[in-house]
Design a protein that fits this description.
Layout (H helix, E strand, L loop, with lengths): L2 E5 L8 H14 L4 E5 L5 H5 L10 H6 L4 H4 L1 E2 L4 E3 L8 H4 L8 H6 L8 E5 L6 H9 L2 E7 L8 H14 L5 E8 L6 H16 L13 H8 L4 H4 L4 H15 L3
Parallel strand pairs: 1-5, 1-6, 2-4, 2-5, 6-7
Antiparallel strand pairs: 3-4
Helix pairs in contact: 1-12
The protein binds adenosine-5'-triphosphate and magnesium ion.
Length: about 250
């Protein structure tokens, strides 16, 4: 059975997609079989790994039950992905039936035995897509950038996860908060780190030891649709992501 990890935070631009991409590629570099799933209608993750999203089967058709997950998986040169596109944005209104929280879990049940890890990128909102990701996942990772607005909305996120734990998926667990785009020299960053630690305590979790530093190479690798560990292996932020992979593995994930 694959270990299922969901990268989430309803705040936009905190590094969810980047973390999904970097974690997926990092685990793959370690020799694991990894599937990443783009559950965001923006399709940023699909773009980052060079997936085709216009003509192909996407997660939308899979959730609708029109195709199975195997048919939607694209084997790009850098990773396996189930892509997404803007059509996915209608599902909150479209999927109104009972059991709609479990569509992703059901859809991926056939590929759970093929992979060691399934990692899901979520949209910047708390909607039925996010709940589907929670209903599937064993572990939640919350990326957060070092700015004060990142702290807002965390209570709401916790409440949603808590409800999912009660009604949909008792095995879900918040593994930790990952500080991204971190800049040690900015005083605010270290203040936020303190606040993040307080929040983590409230969420019954911890802030990961590894912080991801800010670096333009991250964005460049994604824009060029390349593997960041090959694009800039010695870059500080890329090394941080590899360190993060090690930290997760050392926790037995
Ligand atoms: N460590 C980093 N250093 C520099 N830039 C970064 C870093 N991490 C992410 N970025 C850039 O910041 C932007 C936002 O990151 P990303 O898309 O991963 O956030 P997100 O939470 O997925 O956003 P959204 O909520 O819109 O889905 C992207 O352009 C990305 O390339
Ligand atoms: Mg994103």
């Amino acid at each position: 059975m694959a270990k299922t990890i969901c990268i989430t935070n309803q705040k936009g631009g905190v590094g969810k997609t980047t973390t999904t991409y970097a974690l997926g590629l990092g685990l793959r570099k370690k020799g694991y079989k990894v599937l990443i799933v783009d559950l965001d209608p923006q399709g940023n993750l699909s773009f980052s790994v060079g997936a085709e999203t216009e003509e192909s089967i996407t997660i939308y058709e899979v959730l609708k039950g029109e195709y199975n997950a195997e048919e939607a998986i694209q084997h790009t040169p850098i990773i396996d992905i189930v892509p997404s596109n803007i059509v996915l944005s209608g599902v909150d209104l479209e999927f109104t039936y009972t059991g709609r929280e479990f569509l992703l879990r059901e859809a991926l049940s056939n590929v759970q035995n093929i992979y060691d890890y399934i990692i899901v990128d979520t949209p910047p909102s708390l909607n039925i897509l996010t709940v589907n990701a929670f209903a599937l996942s064993n572990k939640i990772i919350i990326p957060m950038i070092a700015d004060i607005f990142s702290l807002q909305g965390i209570a709401q996120l916790y409440e949603t996860i808590d409800r999912v734990k009660r009604y949909c998926n008792p095995s879900i667990n918040i593994e930790g908060i990952l500080l991204t785009r971190y800049n040690k020299r900015v005083i605010l960053s270290s203040e936020i780190k303190g606040t993040a630690e307080m929040i983590a305590k409230e969420l019954n979790t911890t802030v990961f030891n590894t912080h991801i530093r800010s670096s333009i190479s991250i964005q460049e690798a994604q824009t060029k649709q390349e593997n960041l560990y090959e694009y800039a292996p010695r870059n500080s932020a890329v090394m941080d992501y590899m360190q993060f992979v090690e930290e997760l593995l050392s926790r037995g994930i």
